[in-house]
Design the sequence.
């Protein structure tokens, strides 16, 4: 047979069936571990199960003979017990999805501690995929992207190992189900170090590189499919969220006790990412309003029932909400917000807007008067919404309150909707009256400045304030002291002082500031940016004025919008954290928030880019052609002729050198590298293979004398001593001709 | 035998056309088929479920998972194509085969790819008897009304042996491998071994892919040997007037000289002749036996009405011929009216067994009557030491030496 067997010395070894089983065991364990770590970011109470599964999986990976010690009774009772656990869990907790997640982890645990057959391996993949997809859908976290990629890679390798192992066992005897109580041979012989060495020995780097390229291709094709799959808005979302209830991890709820906001500040996780249409519109020190609280009682502020009744609209389900502002001329400017899950059900908004649009229909309660929007339930996933016609100002016009204020009875402050009630005892009122009198009465804006200055003068800033002991209201005690305090104390004290002075005032909570991500060009607001400030009613302007006693730069509140490039530059973040955050924003922008409109925009962008590229290429060609025409039409003097002839001669010389001396050149360059890389030998080997294939394809019987002689000369070049070579370049040229002839005949 | 498969060189190359490629996705080429396995069905079900959930919820997480699953399916197709690319195969049949004995079919594989190995192929082989009268008459639903389809199919299934061999490990690039399929031919005759298809679950086991093959080889299956008993009366008789044997053996008479070959005993070297001719020559001796037997098989239908008995006759004739040749007593063989053939070499005996392998009952036989009763006619007429056959009871067959019963099954 002309085909040459590879000699045993050069042949790569193959994994034995036992080693294939060991590889399967390893990959199955890795997939189990990879799946159960979803519990880390999936907000489900399954920590104990997760820890147990991880420990068990690691233990049986290290000691694969241990599953043989599991008694037979345990295998018999396993599935009835798991089913009973699931039903009990569902009955006690009443939540379908967390119970299913725990069931999934239990099944993974059982599969990881028992010897598996093909269908059990498949179960691991399906169970793991379920966990990851559920976690991804519920959290839309960037971790999902990483995890699903790693999982896909591992699962494909696992399936490949299963297929090869099954093919291997087909050749021999198909393995029976493992006997209980007796570890299989591969488990007894398992030595991870040895398996690693063997894997290294059987691997070919070219195959591994091709595997990597193909996996990159899978990711690219998946991305293309993702872009190309047609989208329809069926308006029937929230299918998984129905099965799970979630509570805010932060303190942004209807009522706030002093210290709640400060507690949020300890968390440096990202709370909100905001895409601003134009960097020039980005406020230097933005305030992201979330919740307005008007009622002070028992040492804390909250949104009063009366105000909820009067100012907050009923629940509605829609994908869009019209605001009070009207869009200006020109192209609409969109602000896109990505609010992380677990922050709050109140949506951060810097001011009034024209239209707020969700990616999908949501249940929410809006309040035009308070300029806040609250989702009915705590969102289980990141919430994306796009706002058009955003207005940024330190004053929030409120015609409804203005009308109410004009109709007020000046003799009484009892109307709760006027937001100037003080639920305090006479002693505290007296203290407040004394302090408010010091601040004068120059109008709301002036009072705000004076009170802020006074508070900053009296108190320092501290995240761990000391409230003096004694009788009366704690906030008043702090106000009267010189103790340092946090934002809530400052804002609350200001509201009490303003109300004592006869102004309507309220506490607002949300975020202040944030950093400008220099990579993804968006605002990144962290939980540590949580803040509380106050708003005071300015009768003259008919608007609520923002007053932040803790504002570092008093001028910043007055001049927020645009043009403050220096302030923005100071806020620009180019750290490694910003790089990671930019990835998250990319994930939100391009993947999570991708919809039919984005699809159309992408297609339009691709079309435009293609057209532009084609146009530029045409222009370049036309330019080159006109330049050539101009050059040809120019005077052909001796110098030009000499230049042209020199170029032709140079090109011909290079071609001649390449055709005749390339082996010599390579030989010189590679001479020190030894015989294996000799280009002449390599070329001779390649041509020998071509002749061999050509001979097989020819089918005309024996080789002719020229072919036989050429083959002998090639063998001399391939294997013979260098001294015996005869004109290698000519031999190789002749061999190429013979190979070409054989190929032609074969066709 | 020619190489076949995607890597076989020299085959007719089709010009690449996109329309052909697309059409082949809709209507696969002959013999090619893809069947989803259980994991494949699960994957398809998962994809449908995810797609439904994705559209229902507008969740891009589900869309991206769906895209990833579909991309994995495409990768599976690409890897499967890469796995088969450059692979060629051919059959190697090495007769003689004998009915009732294990026969081996060799399948040579080679991987012509430059650096990619090939994994997990299996080859489905079928061996079926070649009908003596050519392919059966074409029947339509009208003409085939009276045919018992089940019985016909059962008969066809019984007449063929199916099996598969798998490439268990890895076939390295530029490497070759040989697989063997063993089966037991049920009956004598001409047998066609076909490579029915090449299957693969590679890479992920989602789809079972079959590639059709037109690779086939024919071989002759000799009759199965039978047990028989020799009868002293016929066997002990020394026949006179038989032909003398003239073939190489281990007797005492020098028959010829020949060149020395490796393995020849040094004692056989003819030193004098070697010295004269300046090359080593060894002596060849004539066979010990001096008288040979002629074996004549007649296949007339009136003599062998039963199929089973006829098969026994053929097996008996083959066995007897082999035994006699081994004993150095077989001189000529003849079938019906055909001219007798001298059996001097092994190839002559093999030729006789080949003829017996395909012999059928003759309906138009002119040879009639049992030899014991009626005697024989041309071309073996008048020969001495002639072995003929006749039914022995309802099932048995007896061999007669010049009309005397010499052996029986």
Sequence:
């Amino acid at each position: 047979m002309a085909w040459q067997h590879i000699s045993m010395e050069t042949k790569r070894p193959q994994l034995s069936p036992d080693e294939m089983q060991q590889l399967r065991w390893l990959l199955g364990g890795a997939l189990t571990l990879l799946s159960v770590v979803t519990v880390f970011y999936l907000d489900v109470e399954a920590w104990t199960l997760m820890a147990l599964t991880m420990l068990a999986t690691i233990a049986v990976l290290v000691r694969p003979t241990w599953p043989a010690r599991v008694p037979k009774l345990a295998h018999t009772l396993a599935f009835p017990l798991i089913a009973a656990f699931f039903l009990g869990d569902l009955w006690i907790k009443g939540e379908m999805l967390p119970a299913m997640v725990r069931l999934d982890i239990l099944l993974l645990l059982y599969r990881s501690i028992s010897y598996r057959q093909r269908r059990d391996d498949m179960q691991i993949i399906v169970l793991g995929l379920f966990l990851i997809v559920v976690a991804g859908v519920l959290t839309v976290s960037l971790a999902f992207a990483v995890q699903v990629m790693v999982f896909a890679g591992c699962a494909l390798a696992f399936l490949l190992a299963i297929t090869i192992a099954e093919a291997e066992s087909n050749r021999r005897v198909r393995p029976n189900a493992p006997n209980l109580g007796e570890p299989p041979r591969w488990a007894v012989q398992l030595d991870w170090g040895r398996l690693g060495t063997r894997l290294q020995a059987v691997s070919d780097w070219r195959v591994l590189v091709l595997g990597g390229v193909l996996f990159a291709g899978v990711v690219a094709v998946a991305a293309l499919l993702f872009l190309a799959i047609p989208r329809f808005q069926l308006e029937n979302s929230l299918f998984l969220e129905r099965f799970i209830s979630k509570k805010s991890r932060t303190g942004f709820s209807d009522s706030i006790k002093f210290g709640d906001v400060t507690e949020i500040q300890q968390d440096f996780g990202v709370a909100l990412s905001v895409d601003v249409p134009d960097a020039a519109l980005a406020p230097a020190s933005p305030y992201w309003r979330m919740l307005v609280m008007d009622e002070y009682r028992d040492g804390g502020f909250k949104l009063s029932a009366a105000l909820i009744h009067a100012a907050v609209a009923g629940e509605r389900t829609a994908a869009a909400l019209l605001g009070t502002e009207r869009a200006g001329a020109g192209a609409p400017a969109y602000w896109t917000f990505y609010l992380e899950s677990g922050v709050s059900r109140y949506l951060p908004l810097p001011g009034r807007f024209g239209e707020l649009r969700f990616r999908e229909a949501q249940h929410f309660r809006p309040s035009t008067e308070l300029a806040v929007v609250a989702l009915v339930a705590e969102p289980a996933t990141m919430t994306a919404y796009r706002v058009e016609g955003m207005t940024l100002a330190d004053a929030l016009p409120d015609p409804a309150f203005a009308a109410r204020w004009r109709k007020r009875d000046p003799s009484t402050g009892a109307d709760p909707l006027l937001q100037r009630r003080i639920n305090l005892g006479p002693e505290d009122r007296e203290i407040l009256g004394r302090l408010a009198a010091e601040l004068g009465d120059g109008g709301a804006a002036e009072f705000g400045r004076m009170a802020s200055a006074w508070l900053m003068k009296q108190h320092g800033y501290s995240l761990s304030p000391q409230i003096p002991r004694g009788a009366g209201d704690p906030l008043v005690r702090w106000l009267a002291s010189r103790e340092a305090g946090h934002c809530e104390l400052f804002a609350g004290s200001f509201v009490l002082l303003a109300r004592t002075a006869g102004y309507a005032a309220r506490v607002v909570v949300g975020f202040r500031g944030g950093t400008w991500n220099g990579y993804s060009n968006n605002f990144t607001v962290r939980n540590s940016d949580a803040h509380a400030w106050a708003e005071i009613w300015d009768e003259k302007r008919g608007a609520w004025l923002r007053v932040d006693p803790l504002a570092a730069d008093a001028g910043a509140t007055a001049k927020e919008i645009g043009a403050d490039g220096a302030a923005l530059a100071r806020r620009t973040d180019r750290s490694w954290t910003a790089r990671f955050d930019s990835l998250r924003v990319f994930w939100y922008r391009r993947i999570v928030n991708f919809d039919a409109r984005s699809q159309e925009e992408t297609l339009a962008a691709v079309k435009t880019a293609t057209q532009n590229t084609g146009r530029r290429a045409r222009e370049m060609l036309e330019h080159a052609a006109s330049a050539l025409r101009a050059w040809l039409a120019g005077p052909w003097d001796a110098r030009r002729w000499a230049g042209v002839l020199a170029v032709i001669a140079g090109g011909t010389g290079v071609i001649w050198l390449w055709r005749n001396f390339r082996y010599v050149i390579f030989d010189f360059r590679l001479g020190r590298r030894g015989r294996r890389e000799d280009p002449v030998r390599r070329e001779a080997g390649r041509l020998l293979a071509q002749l061999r294939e050509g001979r097989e394809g020819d089918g005309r019987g024996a080789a002719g004398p020229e072919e036989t002689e050429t083959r002998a000369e090639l063998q001399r070049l391939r294997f013979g001593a260098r001294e015996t070579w005869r004109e290698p370049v000519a031999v190789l040229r002749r061999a190429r001709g013979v190979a070409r002839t054989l190929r032609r005949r074969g066709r | 035998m020619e190489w076949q498969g995607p890597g076989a060189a020299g085959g007719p190359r089709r010009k690449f056309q996109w329309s052909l490629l697309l059409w082949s996705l809709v209507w696969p080429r002959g013999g090619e088929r893809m069947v989803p396995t259980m994991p494949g069905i699960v994957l398809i079900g998962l994809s449908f479920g995810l797609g439904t959930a994705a559209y229902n919820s507008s969740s891009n997480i589900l869309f991206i998972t769906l895209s990833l699953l579909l991309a994995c399916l495409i990768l599976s197709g690409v890897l499967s194509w890469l796995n088969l690319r450059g692979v060629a195969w051919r059959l190697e049949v090495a007769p003689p085969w004998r009915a009732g004995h294990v026969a081996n079919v060799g399948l040579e594989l080679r991987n012509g790819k430059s650096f990619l190995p090939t994994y997990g192929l299996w080859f489905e082989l079928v061996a079926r008897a070649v009908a003596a009268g050519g392919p059966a008459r074409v029947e339509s639903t009208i003409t085939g009304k009276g045919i018992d389809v089940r019985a016909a199919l059962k008969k066809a299934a019984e007449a063929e042996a199916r099996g598969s061999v798998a490439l268990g490990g890895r076939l390295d690039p530029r490497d070759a491998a040989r697989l063997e399929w063993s089966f037991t031919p049920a009956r004598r005759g001409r047998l066609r071994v076909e490579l029915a298809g090449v299957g693969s679950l590679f890479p992920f086991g989602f789809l079972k892919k079959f590639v059709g093959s037109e690779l086939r080889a024919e071989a002759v299956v000799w009759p199965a040997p039978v047990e028989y008993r020799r009868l002293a009366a016929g066997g002990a008789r020394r026949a006179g007037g038989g032909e003398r044997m003239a073939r190489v053996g281990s007797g005492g008479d020098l028959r010829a000289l020949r060149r020395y070959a490796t393995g020849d005993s040094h004692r056989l070297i003819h030193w004098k002749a070697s010295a004269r001719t300046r090359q080593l020559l060894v002596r060849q001796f004539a066979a010990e036996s001096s008288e040979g037997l002629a074996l004549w098989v007649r296949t007339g239908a009136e003599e062998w009405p039963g199929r089973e008995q006829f098969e026994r006759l053929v097996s008996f004739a083959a066995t007897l011929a082999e035994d006699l040749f081994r004993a150095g007593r077989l001189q000529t063989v003849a079938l019906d009216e055909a001219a007798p053939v001298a059996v001097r070499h092994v190839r002559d005996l093999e030729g006789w067994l080949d003829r017996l392998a395909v012999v059928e009952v003759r309906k138009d036989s002119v040879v009639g009557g049992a030899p014991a009763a009626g005697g024989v006619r041309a071309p073996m007429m008048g020969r001495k030491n002639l072995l003929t056959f006749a039914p022995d009871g309802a099932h048995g067959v007896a061999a007669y030496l010049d009309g005397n019963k010499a052996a029986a099954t």
